[in-house]
Amino acid sequence: MPRRRTGTVELGGGVDDGYGRVADEFRTNLGERREIGAACAVMRHGRLVVDLWGGHRDRNRTDPWERDTLVSVFSTTKGLASMAMAVAHARGLFELDEPVVSYWPEFAQHGKQDITVGCLLTHRAGLAVIDRPLGLDTLGEVETLGRVLAAQRPHWEPGRFQGYHGQSLGWYESQLLRRVDPQRRTIGAYFADEVAQPLGIDFYIGLPDDVPDERLATFIGGGPARAAFHVHQMPPRLVLGLCNPRSLTGRVFRNPKILARASDINRRDLLRLELPSVNGVGHARAIATAYGAFAIGAHRLGLDQRTLDSIEAAPTSPEGGTRDRILCVDTAYGFGFMKPFPLLPFGSSTRAYGHTGTGGSFGFADPDRSIGYAYVMNRAGYSVPTDRRELALRTAVYASLD
What we know:
It is a single chain. The protein is an alpha+beta fold. The protein has a single domain, classed as DD-peptidase/beta-lactamase superfamily (Beta-lactamase), CATH 3.40.710.10. It contains 14 helices and twelve strands. The chain has helices spanning 20-32, 77-90, 117-121, 136-139, 142-151, 168-180, 187-199, 224-227, 236-243, 248-252, 268-271, 284-295, 305-312, 388-401; strands at residues 3-6, 9-15, 37-44, 47-55, 71-72, 203-205, 280-282, 333-334, 337-338, 353-356, 362-366, 371-377. The longest helix has 14 residues, at 77-90. The protein starts with a strand and ends with a helix.
């Protein structure tokens, strides 16, 4: 698909017949909604029906966003990491109703012996905050990080409440996975071998050094000072929590300090690490391809119906209700994915699942429509949980279906 110039907007790729309004909204994002560079892709019934990219990958708008440009997607990474966990589950490596200590005995410290894998994957374990400061040295040492995580005490009664494990979920998933995988792979390595390679996609949890800088988009914005001008786009209680360094919310997003500013994600020494909740790097086509495969059963990955049923199940409410103790709004999770909730209604039913990321990226599967969808960008938006640029594209996708 060639790159085309529309007015002053550089647009690459294209769409199948019937999806023209998606291209129109993408063009509007680039021309009127302050987009710098972005990409959007949609798989339908295993076919790529939308594949768009455009704008620039740098702040100065000198380097064009190309077909194979990669960008950091922050918490959208959690959805791809959850796919790795799903493959492991389908292969019988763990059970959701089993206590984590069955696979990781050291995890039992500080009363965590009854936390099940399912409890952990639905953000209910009370382990959103890691009390010990985490630097690059600890994050890069798998054994050391495992000891820190095992020693962490819950900050609420496990299972009673839910609260977004914004940084920690991926670390716990990786430590669990490497104990059940016969090859003892971390989640980034497992994803590369068992998800990315079979699907032939460019997505990395732990960016290889041989990926050239020229393929990477620079993430722009996301700092606290700039965010102060956009507080009206965020839930008020979330803003208060972020401003209070002693609150659970403030503590979740201040450790590790190296990620206090979203633009820090551009550092190669940080991207090299496996931070399975936050530092995935890829392009929209890769994310949409992965979700598109899951939406039609992921047979190429060996998923079974039991695992798919667990992922697509309607979310349940913990005893303490659906109010998230970290995000301070009603949320829903399942198997590490976000499920549709009041502030984020997506897909066609509660069978849908996916994950948003800081700044506005989003990927999800809609099994009812056999859709895998992805939007990525390099200029931070500040709306929570998604962004008007993404919403315009997603709305256009579903209007095209109808």
